[in-house]
TrEMBL record:
This is Uncharacterized protein. It comes from Kickxella alabastrina.
Length: 319
């Protein structure tokens, strides 16, 4: 215990650092029992490359993904018996074609699972920077509710088409709109805070759909790195998931060995506050199939104390 099914490396992701093997070694050192490797599916259009990929072509991303799968398979064999390694990918939904490309990629490489994530709204990057986020807000004339509605409609398209096993940072649309955020001294309104708002109902619609096909929702500690109050999903939506019997797991969304178990002390506090002591995780059977297992009394596991993750306060700071 524990685990993370949302992990990247600098070897195959330009905005991460270090090797994939270093990530796995760090996970073993921390006492993890399972990890899911989830490098991004390649983007097929030149206009979707990020600035750090300016020297690359879409074909380079495809080549890198093939190399990632080969390396992940090598590492799974090398560390067999020390940690269970699942090989997956994190999705993109830039255009409708992106979903078909992800589906084909999964089948071709026989991936164990998908992390279903949405990083774009109307082909514009959502989480790259404050400026890119603000550009989307501007496109919607400053109407954040309209922007949030679009996000959850696109997310539903992704869920329906791919049915990913793990739902990645469910409310990423809040990344540069955290609780208490202010602009020019004026408090911004979070379109999701009103339990009766149309935006909230769209989020609940997606939650119910994902629960219906058996998805697991990650509680993603990387949100604290972005200044949000809670891990993804924020507590209002996490409560909606839990009240409907949704299954949850934990992840660090690590971008290198230095991020493995990042903020897991604070995460323990968040789990306590939300009265969560049962976590779900993916595991491979001896035959190579993937199944969902349950970890009971998750917070009572010695992992937390062994790593100094003893915080019960979400205000605690640790990297």
């Amino acid at each position: 215990m524990p685990f993370s099914f949302h992990m990247h490396s600098g070897q195959f992701c330009r905005h991460a650092s270090g090797s994939l093997e270093a990530v796995i070694q760090a996970a073993i050192d921390k006492g993890m029992i399972a990890v899911g490797l989830s490098e991004h599916v390649p983007r097929s259009r030149a206009q979707d490359l990020y600035p750090e990929e300016s020297d690359m072509a879409p074909s380079d991303l495809s080549t890198a993904f093939a190399e990632y799968v080969t390396e992940a398979q090598r590492l799974r064999a090398k560390y067999s018996g020390q940690i269970d390694i699942l090989i997956g990918a994190e999705t993109e939904h830039i255009t409708a074609a992106s979903l078909q490309e992800a589906k084909q990629l999964r089948a071709y490489y026989q991936l164990d699972y998908l992390v279903g994530s949405l990083h774009h709204i109307d082909e514009m990057p959502l989480d790259f920077s404050q400026a890119s986020y603000d550009a989307i807000v501007l496109k919607y004339g400053g109407d954040r509710a309209a922007m949030f509605r679009r996000y959850f409609d696109l997310q539903l398209d992704l869920l329906r088409e791919l049915q990913p096993e793990v739902i990645g940072h469910f409310d990423l649309v809040r990344i540069f709109h955290p609780y208490g955020n202010t602009t020019a001294g004026l408090a911004e309104i979070d379109p999701l805070e009103d339990a009766f708002s149309e935006v909230r109902q769209l989020a609940v619609r997606n939650i119910e759909y994902a629960i219906g096909y058996g998805a697991i929702f990650e509680i993603n500690s990387r949100a604290w790195k972005k200044g949000l109050r809670d891990a993804y999903p924020q507590r209002d939506l996490l409560a909606e998931i839990l009240s409907r019997g949704g299954r949850v797991t934990i992840s660090d969304d690590s971008h290198g060995a230095q991020d493995v178990c990042m903020f897991y002390g604070r995460l323990a506090g968040y789990l306590r506050e939300m009265d969560i002591d049962r976590l779900h995780y993916l595991a491979r059977t001896p035959e190579g199939a993937v199944e969902v297992r349950v970890l009971e009394d998750a917070l009572g596991h010695g992992f937390w104390a062994a790593n100094g993750f003893v915080s019960v306060s979400v205000s605690a700071e640790e990297e």
